C-alpha cells in the first residue's frame, strides 16, 4: 500500500522560506533593472507580475508532473547585468533582446551539441565575467558613503552582524529596515498612493544586432552558466532526476511568451531549490515536491502583490536602494571571484576578463562583458598554444 502524498507544515514552511529568501535577496535588483531599461512604474509591476506567474506555473507544473521538487527562479545575475547595460538601449530593443535570449536558451535545451560547446567555456572565465558585472554595483555600497556615511555604516554593520547571526533571513531583515528607514526619511512628503492590481503591459519588441550581441547573448550565457548549471547540479546532489532537457525547454518557452511583458530570464534555482530539497522540507524525500508546489503558489501570490512591492521600493531613498542592492550581491560576487581564480592556469585570463567586464566600455556597440569574455578566451587560447609550442620545442 502506497503512502499518501499529503501536504504538511514542513512543506509549507520550506516553500514559503524559499520564495521569501529569493525575493528578499533580489527583488530590488529586478526593480532597478526594469528602471534601467526605461520601464515606467506600471511596467515594473508588469515585470514582477509576469515573473511571479512564470515561476509559479513552472514550479507547480513540473513538480507535480515529475513528483520531485523542481524550483525555478528569475536570473539574479541577469538582473544585475541589465542594471549596468540596459540603459544603453531603448526599451523595445531590451525586450527584443529578452526574446533572442530565450530563443538561444530554447535552442540550447534541445541541442546536446550546443550545450557541450557552451559548457566548454571555462568556469573561471564565465565567473570572472559575472564578477566584473557585479563589481560596480557592489562598489556603490561604499561610494554612497561620501554622501550618507552614517546610513552606509549602519547597513554595512547590519550586514556583517546578520551574516553571522541570521544568514538565511539577512536580506529580509535588511529590506525591512531599509523600508522603515526610507519611510522615516520621507515622512511628511507626498500623499498616499492607491494600491491597484498589477496588469500585464505589452511592449512591442524591436531587434538590433548591437542589442543581440551586447544584451541577449551575455544574458543567455550568464543565466546558463551561473544559474542553470548550478541548478542542475543541485538536483543531482539530492539525487532527484527530472528530465532536465524537458524542464529547460518548458522554462525557455515560458520565457519566450512572457518576454514582451518583462519576463527577462527564467532558470532552475540553486540556493532556494536546496531549501525545498533538504530535510527541513520533510522527513520523506519522496513527498518534498510539495514544498516546490507551495513555493510556486507563493510565487503567484507575490506576483499579484507586485504593485505594493513597486510602491515601496519606488519611494525608497536612492542611497538605500544602491546600498541594499550592492550588499545583496556581496555573496554572489565573492563566490564568483573565488571561482575565477581557482585555476592557477587561468588567473591572468580571469583578471583581464573581470577588469574589462567591470570597465563599462563599449566598442563597436559591443558592451564590456562581451569584450571581457572574448579577451579572456583569447588569452587562454594563446597560453595553450604557447604551452604546446614549448613542449614541442623541448622534445625537438
What's the topology here?
Layout: H1 9-36, H2 41-66, E1 72-74, H3 76-85, H4 91-110, H5 112-119, H6 123-143, H7 149-165, H8 170-185, H9 209-237, H10 244-258, E2 266-268, H11 271-277, H12 289-304, H13 306-314, H14 318-328, H15 330-340, H16 347-359, E3 362-363, E4 366-367, H17 368-395
Antiparallel strand pairs: 1-2, 3-4
SSE series: HHEHHHHHHHHEHHHHHHEEH
Strand adjacency order, main sheet: 1-2
Record field, number of beta strands: 4
Summarize the amount of helix as a percent range. over 70%
Task: Indicate the mean pLDDT.
Answer: 86
Task: Evaluate the radius of gyration.
Answer: 21 Å
Largest sheet descriptor: 2 strands, antiparallel
Instruction: State the shape.
Output: globular
Distance between the termini: 72 Å
What class would the helix/strand composition place it in? Answer: mainly alpha
What percent of residues are in strands? under 5%
DSSP summary: helix tally: 17
**Domain count:** 1
Task: Provide a quick synopsis of the model.
By secondary structure, the protein is mainly alpha-helical. It is built from 17 helices and four strands. The strands form two sheets. It has a two-stranded antiparallel ribbon. A two-stranded antiparallel sheet has the order 3-4.
Amino acid at each position: 500500500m502506497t503512502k499518501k502524498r499529503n501536504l504538511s507544515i514542513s512543506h509549507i514552511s520550506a516553500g514559503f522560506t524559499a520564495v521569501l529568501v529569493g525575493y528578499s535577496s533580489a527583488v530590488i535588483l529586478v526593480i532597478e533593472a526594469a528602471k534601467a531599461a526605461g520601464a515606467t512604474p506600471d511596467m515594473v509591476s508588469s515585470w514582477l507580475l509576469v515573473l511571479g506567474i512564470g515561476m509559479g506555473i513552472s514550479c507547480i507544473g513540473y513538480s507535480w508532473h515529475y513528483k520531485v521538487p523542481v524550483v525555478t527562479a528569475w536570473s539574479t545575475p541577469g538582473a544585475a547585468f541589465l542594471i549596468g547595460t540596459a540603459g544603453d538601449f531603448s526599451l523595445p530593443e531590451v525586450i527584443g533582446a529578452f526574446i533572442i535570449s530565450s530563443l538561444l536558451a530554447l535552442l540550447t535545451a534541445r541541442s546536446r551539441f550546443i550545450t557541450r560547446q557552451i559548457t566548454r567555456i571555462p568556469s573561471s572565465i564565465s565567473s570572472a565575467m559575472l564578477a566584473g558585472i557585479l563589481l560596480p554595483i557592489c562598489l556603490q555600497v561604499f561610494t554612497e558613503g561620501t554622501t550618507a556615511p552614517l546610513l552606509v555604516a549602519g547597513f554595512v554593520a547590519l550586514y556583517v552582524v546578520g551574516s553571522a547571526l541570521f544568514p538565511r533571513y539577512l536580506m529580509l531583515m535588511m529590506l525591512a529596515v531599509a523600508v522603515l528607514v526610507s519611510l522615516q526619511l520621507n515622512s511628511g512628503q507626498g500623499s498616499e498612493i492607491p494600491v491597484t492590481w498589477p496588469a500585464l503591459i505589452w511592449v512591442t519588441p524591436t531587434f538590433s544586432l548591437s542589442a543581440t550581441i551586447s544584451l541577449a547573448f551575455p544574458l543567455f550565457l550568464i543565466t546558463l552558466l551561473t544559474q542553470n548549471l548550478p541548478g542542475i547540479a543541485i538536483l543531482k546532489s539530492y539525487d532527484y532526476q527530472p528530465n532536465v532537457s524537458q524542464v529547460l525547454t518548458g522554462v525557455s518557452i515560458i520565457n519566450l511568451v512572457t518576454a514582451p511583458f518583462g519576463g527577462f530570464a527564467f532558470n532552475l534555482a540553486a540556493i532556494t531549490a536546496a531549501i525545498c530539497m533538504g530535510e527541513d522540507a520533510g522527513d520523506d524525500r519522496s513527498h518534498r515536491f510539495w514544498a516546490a508546489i507551495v513555493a510556486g503558489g507563493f510565487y503567484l501570490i507575490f506576483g499579484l502583490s507586485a504593485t505594493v512591492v513597486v510602491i515601496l521600493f519606488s519611494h525608497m531613498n536612492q542611497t538605500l536602494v544602491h546600498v541594499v542592492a550592492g550588499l545583496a550581491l556581496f555573496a554572489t560576487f565573492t563566490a564568483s571571484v573565488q571561482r575565477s581564480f581557482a585555476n592557477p592556469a587561468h588567473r591572468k585570463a580571469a583578471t583581464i576578463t573581470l577588469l574589462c567586464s567591470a570597465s563599462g566600455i563599449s566598442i563597436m556597440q559591443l558592451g564590456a562583458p562581451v569584450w571581457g569574455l572574448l579577451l579572456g578566451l583569447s588569452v587562454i587560447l594563446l597560453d595553450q598554444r604557447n604551452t604546446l609550442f614549448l613542449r614541442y620545442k623541448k622534445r625537438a
